[in-house]
Each structure stands twice: as structure tokens, then as C-alpha cells.
Write a structure and sequence with these properties.
Blueprint: E1 16-26, H1 32-43, H2 53-79, H3 88-108, E2 112-121, H4 125-134, E3 137-144, H5 151-166, E4 173-176, H6 184-200, E5 207-213, H7 217-221, H8 226-241, E6 248-253, H9 266-275, E7 280-284, H10 293-309, E8 314-318, H11 325-338
Parallel strand pairs: 1-2, 1-3, 3-4, 5-6, 5-7, 7-8
Helix pairs in contact: 1-2, 3-11, 4-5, 6-8, 6-11, 9-10
Length: 344
Amino acid sequence: MIMKMPSDHPKLPARKVGVLFANLGTPDGYDYWSMRRYLNEFLSDKRVIDYPAWKWQPILQAIILTKRPKSSGEAYKSIWNEEQGESPLMTITKAQVAKLRDCFEAKYGDGVMVDFCMRYGNPSTKSKVAEMVAAGCDRILFFPLYPHYAGATMGTANDQFFRALMSEKWQPASRTIEPYFDDPAYVDALAQSVERGYEAMEKRPDLLVVSYHGMPKRYLLEGDPYHCQCQKSTRLLKERLGWDEAEITTTFQSVFGPEEWLKPYTVEEVARLAKAGKKNIAVIAPAFSADCIETLEEIQEEIQEAFIEAGGESFSYIPCLNDDDAHIQALVGIAEKNLGGWIE
């Protein structure tokens, strides 16, 4: 039975399903104040730095945020997309979502709305949830672009999504995705990128260093599954490539603060490898769905420099999956699995 609305009833948009992809975030610019705003939001997140506010905030506001915006701004400036006026992460995320939107439109017409948001910075999660609700999305799949679960990545992205829902008068039904590091299509896309990378190199590397973003070791001991998922991710990649243990190793980068983090540290390990005779290595960073400051500046500048200074000769970086077609198809497949019952 079709219910007839009263003449004075507010007009309702046609029902849609929303798929909202999310990434970490990016400053609006590399100037001091843009960097300070971004770093303040990021480093004030209790999922990222879980020290008590009374202890952490004075250090953050009085010390870190007076110095770090300048050094971080210089790092961003070295990789900034000046033509588009944005960071590479923003450029790549836009390209990913444009392809994802085309895939869903080809299959489902205008019944599925695809967009993206950032956990920190713009476009905000709250603004994009509000846009989807206003457009008629009464069901939203929230899809953080992190293959592995960590409280400081997927966990905090989900937190922000749930906070955004709290602002809606009529909340849409909502779902979040599971970690997808072990999804066969994703693993295959990752392996294909390694195979392409190796084929383009003049000499086969002695070792593939699989570098993941780090976290304090304490988080692992408190129950965060990230470390275990990273180890399994490397194993699945190795098995898909048909390699043995001697051809691949796992490390962790981006150490911050005084605590012990997950080891081995990438910057130290590549130097050790060079001194041990591994003069030709390749590095890949599968915890990132898109190239960003940690891959374009940290890996290709700081970590590469540590390897060369220690006696290394050839350092090759295999890019993130970015908007590679195999990656896009894997993401579409994962989304469709999680949209069961909402789309046909």
C-alpha cells in the first residue's frame, strides 16, 4: 500500500544507500597555521595519544605545536600537489572515489551514493554524513580505507562516524566494515603491484621490506590486533607471490614519542640490512591505501637515506595501490559484501 503524504508534509528525497569511504586526513595547506590546526586535531585524539589530557595537552600545546607545524609543513611542501593546491593523499583519494563512484553508478544507477570524508581536516565526516542524509540515504555503509584494524586508524574513524550520526534528527541505518587485509582480491591486487614493480627493475631486489605504520607496543599488549594482522598480511602476500621467507620481511615505521613501539623499526632495519650485505632492497607499505606523507616523504627520503648512508646501493619503492583498477575492484567487492540485503 502506498501512503499518500499530506499536502503540508515536508518533501522527502528518494531513498538511497550511501557508501562513505574515509581516509586519515590532510592539512588544508603546508603553512604554519594550517599545519597547527591539523596536528592539533590529530594529536588530541585519545585513540592516537591515550595519555591523560592533564599530562598530554600542556606538552602538546606549549611544546609540540610550537615547533612541529614548521617541520611537518616543510615535509608536506616537498610533496605538495601545487597544481591542485592539495596534498597527494587528497588527490589520490579523489581519484579513487571517482572510479568507485563510476563502478557503483554503472551497476546500481542513482540508487547508491558514493563519497569520501577525512577523519582529520576536510571534508569532515560530520559534513559528509549530513550531505548523505539530506540526499535521501537512509542506509550508510561506512568504509575506512585501512586494510588492517588499529584503534588509531579504523577505530577512531568509526568513532567519528558514530559521533556524526548523533547530530542527525533521523539517523540512517548504518554499518561499518571488517578489516580487509586478508580479502583474496585485495591480496591479489597487492601481489600484482609487487610483480609489476619487480618486472620494471633492472635487478631483482635482495629483499622486499614490507613496512607498516607503527604503534606503541603497549597497544598490542592491551589487545589491539594490528600487529598480528600485519604479520598475517605479509604471510598472505608471500604465499600469493610464491616466495620463501628469505625474500620478504616485516618492519614498522613512523615512531613517535618516548615509548617502545612495534619492532623492528624500518629506518633502523634497512640500515642493518645494508651493513649485513643486502645492498638492493624494495619497500612496500600495504597499511596505506594511498600514497601520503609517510610513503612519499618518510620512506622515499628519510628511510632511503638511512639505507644508502649505511652502504646500500639500490632502493626501490613500490607505490601504494592508489587508484589501480585491481584495487578499485577489490574495494567494490568488499563494499558489496557488506551491503548484503541493502542492494540487489
